[in-house]
Amino acid sequence: MDYLIIVQAFWIVIPIYVANASAVIVGGGTPIDFGKKWKDGRRILGDGKTWRGLFSGTFLGMTAGFGLTVAASYLSASGYGFLGLTDFEGFPSMILILFSLCFGALLGDVIESFFKRRIGRDRGQDWIPFDQLDFIVGALIFSFLISELLYVLHLASIQWFFANITIWHALVLLIVTPFIHITANVLFRKIKKKQAKNIRV
Fold first, then answer.
1. CA-CA distance, 38 to 19, in Å (whole number)?
2. Residue 32's closest CA among 19, 48, 17, 16?
């Protein structure tokens, strides 16, 4: 596999990772399900999915994407155009494309949480591989839909999704992401345990 595919895949996924991580770090407040239960007696989503996490995660992910847009133009002008790094179609299309990637990632996480509650798994319990892939799948599906809509409405000169995400890019993301996600979770839990231990001491 061409190393450029790996570089391009990780470039595209940066806003997705930032959105997903930010939703956890800066989340809290009112749950998306408002504390309601489903007909099975379990929470619809749980306290881990909040409106603040959804919108702040999307915003911070998009902010990272805007930075990449500027960086892509700079790298292209500096002789690194051969890397083929996307600028997300530039202004103004990049706003909707980045929104679709970041919001789609968090929407995928929300949908996964709904089904996770239905099978009786609580917040914090692992559901491999769905916990590790939900946000990537959500981002891919939603960005495809928005890219297609922009193209059909003649608001973009190309269909961004097909121009930048091949089956190989998708495979890189689907294969590598679970390892990154699991490693990050292990480190995060160790840090929390260490902090709790220090507080008790």
1. 27
2. 48
